């Protein structure tokens, strides 16, 4: 894994430096690009006057120390920025994941119990819509209908502009507001989560419901379920106590896959909903060619991806004793 | 995750088993869009690039989906948009499958250090969220459909490489391959004649599913300004334009629906294929 | 970006504008739900573009508002946007040659920590601004030395005549910081040793009516009233600027009463907005978006004077204003915007397709194809991609094909720096109230921004005229010189302004004292509720 992270860091470093852009425009503003004094001072300050190789070694040296450098745009250490923004992304993705998985399981069970019936078709349609919707378009549409047009739900952002963010304990506004006993703020932050989490979570529904349906159908054909049915147990009991428990195990293992999906979705969803998370930070960083921020975000994404992969491998090994960790 | 396949069910003559119900509708939708993409220049209602009416008109009989901020007919532009999205997705998928097949087959069949090197490379590529990687590549190559296309191929081929490698490893251990090796058939011939045909089903099924995803990614890249150049009508770019004219909802609605229709159609077909060929554990 | 605005795209989205608020219709008060403890805070919805909060490094529209609220300049600007009024200085005078200026500080002025504002603070603030060579340093580039004979007197010697100096002193970036506090936090006048920038992102050291409470990039900027302010104290105990990316959300939040002021409402979003406790005003601005033709750029060789003139004549200016801002804008004749010294009586540009075609025929130009790479920005409600598509259509009618290529501004900057770009688009918002900034930026002076980018010959006429204007003490005579400069720049056909958009200022109807200031954008301490 350190090897992979090292590789990722190097690749991103190279790609970002190869980009034919000029980050100075972000640093000094386009009004000063032809002012030699200002340009020279800025280059010296941000280390851009060194050769790419020198920059690379300086970057690697800092990275080993756990220092990602200072962002050109926010003028804060990238670590600080990520630390500040990560909870927003986690709160959103976890809501989307929990919501998506729950709805997915329900749909999957319904579809399996009513295989090839009307309900199965409806469930499949709903699930496939989720993986066919362009997230940015869905976000705009939902905002237009629920926010701009009818005002049923709040608009972009994490809380109402007049609200004051809760003191940071976990960084999750829903949790922190409860910790300080502010139910109004809790409700507000939940309401703000609904639209973006729906856009993001809908895609998960498709993945999960498909898997649950397929696993359940497999289980149905296995002896003990047949026996249970033959014994005259109620269908619901059969499904819930016997088949579902086994069928759910594989679902755990798709977390890694879902996570990559969510991360991609988060970039677009955060952009549309002005969500102050890592995804929107990534878009800003690549727009402004903010080298340190770009590398920081990608490393964070890569680490998260590898960790979830590891997690899913372990979970898989636990779920299926036939597979040994090697 | 390992990929398990069972041999394809025998297809009956005539209409294959999977081509029923929604999948059939999906195929029809795809066929219609392909037809539109091929023929729209012949019967296009308006010029997609010229302002033909007062700007920001709502949907009406003359302009089924209204006009945009430059007075262009949104419906016409939506139809022309298929001439970008469909060919791009096709080229991306075909190129990715070819590259992925070669790399995956070599890695899986040869094993050893070649496998290790190739797969580490694939791992690194896959550890990036696709949109971030595509954004970085497109940014460094400059915007434009061709560069977006290159970026997407670079992002996509590792998926097939990994998939095919797993298949090849699974098939490699079967008896008939081992016996072919024993009687001294050339390696390339074994790969081509005995292994690939068996290993290919999940790749094809996945390619169908991915076709829709590539259409989505193309639109996403255009949406954040990295895809098609104006004034060419491209669905993602049209949504961006519509978003700046938020209260004229029809500008973004039409291209969004077009994307939804195409992607949904491919997903239905892919889903049916997947069920029919019983491909599981798709990465 | 749920659009309208992209970050990075939004720098200088709204800048200064003309004085006065044009009320568009009646205002009936209702709604306005605000609750509990935050009742008294003033909330402003804004797409923020803050690059830094260090007074010597900050350079953005939001920074102008922040600097004005927290730091003070020696000279202020009256509501008429032309009269200079005392602020930290009680009086000032320049010599006849416009090379020496003396300021007398108000002995009552003190910083938020209670220490008096002295000439040493002025000297340190301006020397640091000059020494750090950050974005706004060019405003003090003419300063040669600063003398402080006593604690209340500041004597500035310039390296050249500069009749614009007092206007520059009025620019918010020349605000004064508490030098003792800043030095204690590592501030120096040398970029190699200065370490104060991070401290300034969380603290402030000014004498203004507000102090910095908290800043979170991408989310909010909180200001607290300076309760020991030496002048008239501000009305609001707390002011919060909320990052709100786009016009539509700003409108929704204002209508719901979640915010008190929305600063970047576009024409389309403003439609049907008046009433329900909201007042929307529209004022002409000094901001503009322009087309730039670079004959010296790679691929721009065919842009001869006649071809450039033909391009100017081929544009449908009215149509451009309609397409970009729905008609809510003005035609701007010269690179010096309407309302600045030297612009009275300039002829408005007009479309003349026949003449454009004949000019091209004279030059023997047919089927000309030009690269038009431009930054994909959306500023002052003008979407560059929309504007360039309209330009493309207009030029196509006279036989010129533009290859549009919208890119991120960093990519654009790289390209224009290396090869130049034949046809491109950019915007400008002023930093102070003097016309000289336009000549220095757009004029074909040696090393000016656009002389460098367009790679043209240097105009000796413009160089001489500007020197003359800088040495001219009399405002009327100076305006005459600037008019000659404006006409000369129009004749160059390098910079072609295409739209001068109006500004929309929207607020809850109980907010009083709202107007655009030419120096400072929005002056928060002038606002009140009631």
Q: How many separate structural domains of chain C?
A: 2
Largest interface: A-C, 57 and 60 residues
Alpha-beta classification of chain C:
alpha+beta
Question: SS-based structural class of chain A?
Answer: mainly alpha
- CATH class of the largest domain in chain C reads Alpha Beta
Low-confidence stretches of chain C: 1-38
Percent of residues in helices of chain A: over 70%
Shape of chain A: elongated
For the termini of chain C, the CA-CA separation is 34 Å
Keywords summarizing the entry:
heterotrimer, B: 283 residues, mainly alpha, MetI-like fold, 70% helix, disordered N terminus, C: 530 residues, alpha+beta, D-Maltodextrin-Binding Protein, domain 2, Dipeptide-binding Protein, domain 3, 7-stranded mixed sheet, 4-stranded antiparallel sheet, 16 helices, 22% strand
Explain the overall architecture.
The complex is a heterotrimer of chains A (326), B (283) and C (530). Chain A contains 14 helices and no strands. In chain A, helix 5 packs across helix 9. Chain A is elongated, with a radius of gyration of 24 Å. The model of chain A has no long low-confidence stretch (mean pLDDT 85). Chain B has one domain: Orthogonal Bundle (MetI-like fold). In chain B, helix 3 packs across helix 5 and helix 9 runs antiparallel to helix 10. Chain B is mainly α. Chain C has two domains: 233 residues, Periplasmic binding protein-like II (D-Maltodextrin-Binding Protein, domain 2); 214 residues, Dipeptide-binding Protein, domain 3. The longest helix of chain C has 18 residues. Chain C is of the alpha+beta class and 530 residues long. The N terminus of chain C is likely disordered. In chain C, the strands form seven sheets. In chain C, strands 8-9-10-1-11-21-12 form a seven-stranded mixed β-sheet, with helices on both faces. A four-stranded antiparallel β-sheet of chain C has the order 4-5-7-6, covered by helices on one side. Chain C is built from 16 helices and 23 strands. The two termini of chain C are 34 Å apart. The interface between A and C is large, with 57 and 60 residues.
Topology:
The complex is a heterotrimer of chains A (326), B (283) and C (530).
Chain A: H1 2-18, H2 24-28, H3 36-45, H4 52-64, H5 78-113, H6 118-132, H7 135-149, H8 173-179, H9 183-220, H10 223-230, H11 235-253, H12 255-272, H13 278-288, H14 291-319
Chain B: H1 21-43, H2 74-110, H3 112-127, H4 130-141, H5 145-172, H6 175-182, H7 187-199, H8 201-223, H9 235-244, H10 250-277
Chain C: E1 42-46, H1 61-70, E2 75-77, E3 84-86, E4 89-94, E5 100-105, H2 119-131, E6 143-150, E7 153-158, H3 165-169, H4 179-184, H5 197-200, E8 210-216, E9 220-225, E10 238-243, H6 247-255, E11 261-262, H7 267-270, E12 278-283, E13 288-293, H8 305-314, H9 317-325, E14 329-330, H10 353-362, E15 368-375, E16 378-379, E17 382-383, H11 384-396, E18 400-407, H12 409-418, E19 423-428, H13 436-442, H14 449-454, H15 460-471, H16 475-492, E20 495-501, E21 503-508, E22 511-512, E23 528-529
Parallel strand pairs in C: 1-10, 1-11, 15-18
Antiparallel strand pairs in C: 2-3, 4-5, 5-7, 6-7, 8-9, 9-10, 11-21, 12-21, 13-19, 13-20, 14-20, 16-17, 22-23
């Amino acid at each position: 894994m350190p090897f992979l992270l090292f590789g990722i860091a190097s690749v991103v470093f190279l790609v970002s430096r190869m980009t034919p852009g000029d980050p100075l425009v972000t640093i000094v503003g386009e009004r000063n690009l032809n002012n030699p004094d200002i340009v020279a001072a800025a280059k010296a300050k941000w280390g851009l006057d060194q050769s790419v190789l020198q920059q690379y070694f300086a970057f690697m040296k800092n990275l080993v120390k756990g220092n990602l450098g200072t962002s050109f745009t926010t003028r804060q250490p990238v670590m600080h920025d990520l630390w500040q923004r990560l909870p927003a992304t986690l709160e959103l993705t976890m809501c989307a994941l929990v919501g998506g998985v729950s709805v997915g399981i329900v749909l999957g069970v319904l579809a399996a119990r009513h295989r090839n019936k009307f309900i199965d078709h409806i469930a499949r349609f709903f699930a496939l819509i989720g993986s066919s919707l362009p997230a940015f378009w869905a976000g705009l549409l939902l905002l237009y209908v629920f926010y701009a047009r009818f005002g049923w739900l709040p608009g972009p952002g994490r809380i109402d502009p007049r609200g004051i963010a809760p003191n940071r304990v976990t960084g999750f506004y829903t949790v922190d507001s409860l910790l300080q006993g502010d139910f109004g703020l809790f409700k507000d932050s939940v309401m703000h989560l609904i639209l973006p989490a729906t856009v993001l979570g809908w895609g998960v529904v498709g993945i999960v419901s498909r898997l649950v349906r397929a696993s359940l159908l497999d289980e149905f054909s296995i002896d003990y379920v047949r026996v249970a049915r033959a014994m005259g147990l109620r269908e619901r009991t059969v499904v819930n106590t016997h088949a579902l428990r086994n069928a759910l195990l594989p679902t755990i293992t798709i977390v890694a896959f879902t996570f990559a999906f969510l991360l991609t979705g988060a970039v677009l969803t955060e952009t549309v909903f002005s969500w102050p998370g890592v995804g929107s930070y990534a878009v800003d960083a690549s727009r402004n060619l903010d080298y340190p921020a770009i590398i920081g975000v990608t490393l964070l994404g890569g680490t998260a991806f590898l960790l979830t992969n590891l997690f899913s491998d372990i979970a898989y090994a636990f779920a299926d004793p036939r597979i040994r960790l090697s | 995750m390992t990929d398990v396949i069972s041999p394809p069910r025998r297809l009956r003559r005539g209409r294959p088993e999977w081509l029923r119900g929604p999948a059939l509708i999906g195929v029809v939708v795809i066929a219609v869009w392909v037809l539109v993409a091929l023929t729209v220049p012949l019967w296009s209602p308006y010029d997609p690039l010229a302002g033909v009416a007062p700007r920001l008109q709502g949907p009406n009989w003359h302009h089924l989906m209204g006009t945009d901020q430059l007075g262009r007919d949104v419906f016409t532009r939506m139809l022309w948009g298929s001439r970008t999205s469909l060919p791009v997705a096709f080229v991306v998928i075909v190129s990715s499958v070819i590259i992925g097949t070669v790399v995956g087959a070599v890695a899986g069949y040869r094993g050893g250090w070649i496998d290790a090197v190739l797969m580490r490379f694939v791992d690194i590529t896959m550890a990036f969220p696709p949109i971030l990687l595509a954004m970085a590549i497109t940014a460094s190559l400059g915007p434009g459909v061709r560069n977006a296309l290159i970026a997407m191929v670079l992002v996509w081929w590792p998926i097939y490489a990994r998939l095919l490698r797993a298949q090849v490893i699974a098939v490699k251990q079967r008896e008939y391959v081992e016996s072919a090796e024993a009687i001294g058939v050339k390696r390339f011939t074994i790969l081509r004649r005995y292994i690939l045909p068996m290993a290919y089903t999940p790749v094809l099924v996945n390619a169908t599913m991915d076709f829709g995803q590539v259409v989505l990614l193309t639109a996403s890249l255009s949406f954040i300004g990295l895809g098609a150049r104006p004034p060419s009508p491209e669905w993602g770019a049209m949504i961006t334009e519509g978003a700046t004219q938020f209260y004229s909802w029809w500008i973004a609605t039409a291209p969004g629906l077009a994307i939804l229709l195409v992607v949904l159609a491919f997903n239905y077909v892919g889903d049916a294929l997947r069920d029919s060929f019983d491909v599981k554990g798709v990465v | 970006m749920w659009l309208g605005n992209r970050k990075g795209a939004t720098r200088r989205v709204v800048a200064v504008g003309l004085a006065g608020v044009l009320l568009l219709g009646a205002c009936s008060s209702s709604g306005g739900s605000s609750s509990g403890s935050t009742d008294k805070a003033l909330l402003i919805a804004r797409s923020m573009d803050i690059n830094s909060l260090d007074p010597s490094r900050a350079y953005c529209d939001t920074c102008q508002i922040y600097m004005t609220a927290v730091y003070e300049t020696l000279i202020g600007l009256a509501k008429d946007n032309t009269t200079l009024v005392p602020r930290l200085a009680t009086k000032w005078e320049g010599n006849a040659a416009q090379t020496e200026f003396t300021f007398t500080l108000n002995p009552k002025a003190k910083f938020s920590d209670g220490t008096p504002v002295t000439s040493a603070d002025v000297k340190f603030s301006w020397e640091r601004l000059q020494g750090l060579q950050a974005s706004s340093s060019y405003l003090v580039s003419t300063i040669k030395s600063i003398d402080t004979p006593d604690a209340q007197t500041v004597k500035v010697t310039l390296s050249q005549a500069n009749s614009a100096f007092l206007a520059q002193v009025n620019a918010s970036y020349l605000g004064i910081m508490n030098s003792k506090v800043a030095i204690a936090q590592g501030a120096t006048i040398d970029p190699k040793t200065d370490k104060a920038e991070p401290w300034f992102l969380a603290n402030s050291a000014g004498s203004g009516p507000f102090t910095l409470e908290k800043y979170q990039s991408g989310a909010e900027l909180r200001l607290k009233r300076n309760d020991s302010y030496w002048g008239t104290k501000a009305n609001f105990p707390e002011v919060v600027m909320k990052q709100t990316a786009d016009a539509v959300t700003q409108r929704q939040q204002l209508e719901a009463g979640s915010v008190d002021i929305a600063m970047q409402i576009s024409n389309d979003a403003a439609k049907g907005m008046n009433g329900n406790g909201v007042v929307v005003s529209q004022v002409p601005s000094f901001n503009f978006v322009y087309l730039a033709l670079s004959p010296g750029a790679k691929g721009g060789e065919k842009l001869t004077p006649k071809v450039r003139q033909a391009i100017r004549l081929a544009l449908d200016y009215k149509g451009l204003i309609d397409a970009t801002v729905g008609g809510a804008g003005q035609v701007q004749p010269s690179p010096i915007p309407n309302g600045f010294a030297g612009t009275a009586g300039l002829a408005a540009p007009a479309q003349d397709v026949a003449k454009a075609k004949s000019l091209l025929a004279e030059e023997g130009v047919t089927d000309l194809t030009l690269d038009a790479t431009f930054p994909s920005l959306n500023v002052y409600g003008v979407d560059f991609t929309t504007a360039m598509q309209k330009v493309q259509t207009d030029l196509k009618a006279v036989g010129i094909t533009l290859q549009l290529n919208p890119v991120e501004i960093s990519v654009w900057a790289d390209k224009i720096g290396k090869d130049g770009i034949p046809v491109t688009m950019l915007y400008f918002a002023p930093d102070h109230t003097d016309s000289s900034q336009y000549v220095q930026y757009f004029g074909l002076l040696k090393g000016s921004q656009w002389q460098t980018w367009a790679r043209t010959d240097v105009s000796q006429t413009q160089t001489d005229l500007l020197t003359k204007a800088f040495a001219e003490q009399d405002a009327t005579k100076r305006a005459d010189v600037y008019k000659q400069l404006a006409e000369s720049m129009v004749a160059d056909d390098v910079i072609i302004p295409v739209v001068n958009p109006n500004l929309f200022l929207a607020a809850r109807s109980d907010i009083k004292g709202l107007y655009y200031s030419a120096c400072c954008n929005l002056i928060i301490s002038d606002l009140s509720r009631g």
